[in-house]
Design a protein that fits this description.
By secondary structure, this protein is an all-alpha fold. It contains 14 helices and no strands.
Length: about 325
């Protein structure tokens, strides 16, 4: 039987558990936080006073911080691309509105709050060129992405397990830096977003764990393929207005590494955490090919760590159209 059909059968088997996954890992709309909980209330008479305070505190945050915050916001706001990609994954049927499509819609609903909150904060802060930010967001949605998973649910769940943990790290570190500069409100915003990302990471990594129980060899091969080809970030096609897709994402990544928000060492650490979480060393009933894949995976973090240690960041920081250096001082 073709592997594609086995994957579909596994997805249909696990679909029976989706309602339980929704209850365990997602929060009902009426109970979860909303962006307005953390922003100045435009209905209040002291709204403008609160905005002035927000803007005054924001003046102390450095240039690279703003680049990273804008990049994180744009990444979150390109959500339509991610939802449409996941809806096309083998076993996820939005037409019949099966359990998996229910998961994707509710996950999307939670994720959508992140970009909404950060966008409003950026707008109120007065520290960034919102039109440039908005054009970059539109470009990213228009250009889409290619994360190397195709319609394969196994590879997609490896990707989301990795990516949700990466975004947790990024938002959590931004929260810590904001707190250091005295912006307690922004710190709390980013901490709440990070909490969502960790919860979603636990969900997607549990999906992979469940697949390992019923189709261990093919799940191992999918994990191997994703790690061998490297995980690309969802904003890999990032570009500014008037520019072609080139090095913008790399430059954004350099800013993130310079201030310690997300580094090459974090990439290796996430890989190691997934290996430990899925207990890759203990999985049995593997084919000879999957055994080789397991051996490769077990040795990979140490190899990647040596490569990351040799990484040298450029001294010059790219000046993005989103943030003029003078604005960030």
């Amino acid at each position: 039987m073709p592997q594609k059909n086995i994957r579909l059968e596994v997805m249909q088997f696990l679909e029976k558990k989706v309602d339980g996954f929704v209850d365990q890992f997602l929060i009902p709309v009426e109970q979860i936080w909303q962006p307005s909980d953390f922003l100045p209330n435009s209905e209040n008479e002291n709204f403008f006073e609160e905005v002035r305070e927000l803007r005054e505190i924001a003046k102390d945050l450095p240039y690279d911080f703003w680049v990273v915050l804008v990049g994180d916001t744009i990444t979150e706001e390109a959500l339509p691309t991610y939802e449409s990609w996941l809806m096309d994954v083998e076993g996820i049927d939005n037409v019949e509105r099966n359990g998996w499509s229910k998961w994707v819609r509710q996950w999307t609903g939670e994720e959508n709050r992140h970009g909404d909150l950060l966008n409003k904060y950026l707008y109120l802060s007065g520290r960034v060129n919102m039109r440039e930010v908005e054009m970059t967001t539109q470009h990213l949605i228009t250009d889409g992405f290619d994360i190397g998973t195709g319609r394969d649910p196994y590879k997609n769940f490896v990707y989301t397990s990795f990516q949700e943990l990466a975004t947790y790290i990024s938002h959590n570190r931004v929260s810590q830096i904001a707190k250091q500069y005295g912006d307690k409100k922004l710190s709390k915003m980013c901490k709440m977003i990070a909490g969502d990302e960790m919860r979603h990471h636990h969900a997607y990594s549990e999906f992979v764990n469940q697949i390992f129980k019923v189709d261990p060899s093919q799940m191992m091969m999918a994990f191997h393929d994703m790690m061998k080809n490297k995980i690309v970030m969802p904003a890999v096609f990032l570009r500014e207005s008037g520019e072609k897709i080139s090095t913008a994402f790399e430059e954004f990544s350099n800013s993130a590494q310079k201030i310690g928000v997300y580094t090459a060492a974090d990439y290796v650490d996430i890989m190691q955490k997934l290996i430990e979480k899925w207990e890759i060393d203990k999985i049995g009933n593997l084919t000879a090919e999957a055994e080789k894949a397991r051996d490769y995976l077990m040795k990979l973090p140490a190899r990647m760590a040596k490569v990351s240690e040799r990484l040298v960041l450029p001294e010059e920081t790219k000046i993005f159209k989103w943030v003029e250096p003078a604005l960030a001082r």
